[in-house]
Specification:
Blueprint: H1 2-22, E1 36-38, E2 47-50, E3 55-62, E4 65-70, E5 77-81, E6 84-90, E7 93-95, E8 97-98, E9 109-111, E10 116-124, E11 127-145, E12 148-161, E13 167-175, E14 180-188, E15 194-202, E16 226-227, E17 269-276, H2 279-290, H3 294-297, E18 301-307, E19 313-322, H4 325-337, E20 343-346, H5 352-360
Parallel strand pairs: 11-16
Antiparallel strand pairs: 1-9, 2-3, 2-15, 3-4, 4-5, 5-6, 6-7, 8-10, 10-11, 11-12, 12-13, 13-14, 14-15, 17-19, 17-20, 18-19
Amino acid sequence: MESMMRTVRILALSAAMFGLAAKVHADPVPAPAGAVVQAPAWTPGSEWHYSDGYALKVSSSSPGGTVFERLDTPGQWFSRLGFIRTDSLTAGTARNAIYRTVPDNAGFALSAGKPLTFQREYLSDGKLLVHASSWTVEGRETITVPAGTFDCWIIVWRTRSLRSDWTGFERWWYSPQAQHYVRLEYQYGQDNSGSRVLMRHKPGASALTPSSAPDVAPPGPNTVQKQIKPQEAGGKDRIAAPAALPSSKSAELQPVARPVPAAVANGIWQVQIGSSQQEALLRASLKKIVRKDAKLGALPSGVRMHEGPQGEKLYRAWLGSYDSAQSARALCRTLKASGTECFVVKKDGGLERQQVAQNRG
């Protein structure tokens, strides 16, 4: 009888301790005032694989941006400048974004208490879309996913169309250690909300080590980390759209000056700014464009003749000379911000998106 009572007391004590522990989680805490979340220095070769099959690999990285290829859908890719997404190729549709209201380096750091608000313009299937967007630091949290336990910044991207009622958001549990989100909640327009968690990741050769990652306070000694299983990642009860965009007065945002990347000799990447069968007309247009800015005038430029499909002569105006497509994209963004349409090409005349698709197919 005494042995039975001792067993009952032990079980009761264990249950009480378990109940206490189960209530102690590394719940989200507000980000300290003035805290800064730095975008990672992404390195080629880094990979992330998620619970819904989504998978990414860094194919190249330079001061002009980082290019991510979709391992789950070969041929698709997108690029980022810090946390801000720039160009992309998805399902055969190329998108080149223009950010007139923030400098190119605006997305390399996010500050708590000071949302990064900007206007994004891009062409999609020939239609101009204009969105008011923002990145906000929401807090910190330690979570456990199949890939491990990570101290995370919770950062939120919100966007809404200025021409319709379309809205979207992404909530990242961003881990400096993993150099990407380890959990994502999202919704785009009227599509169903969704989420994914990190299953495994592989850092590139020179990726940041945890000791060099931005500081995030670890959980206390009596804290039980929040565990998220793959089958729970899409639980709609966890997904709540963030509050509306911060007051941004998007209509009052003013364009900012954009840099003109310095050219290199014999570069293989250029920017095409027009084509025509009338050489004289095209040269006049090119001359007008480079006269807008002394830095543009200092870049190599010219008009090349190509043979069309029916044997006709076709002339193409080009500007710049670069070793990397990212530098050429930076020039193209500068031109687009001033109202000049353009796209990136290789020196042999191939479109950038065609070349990328061939390399990654």
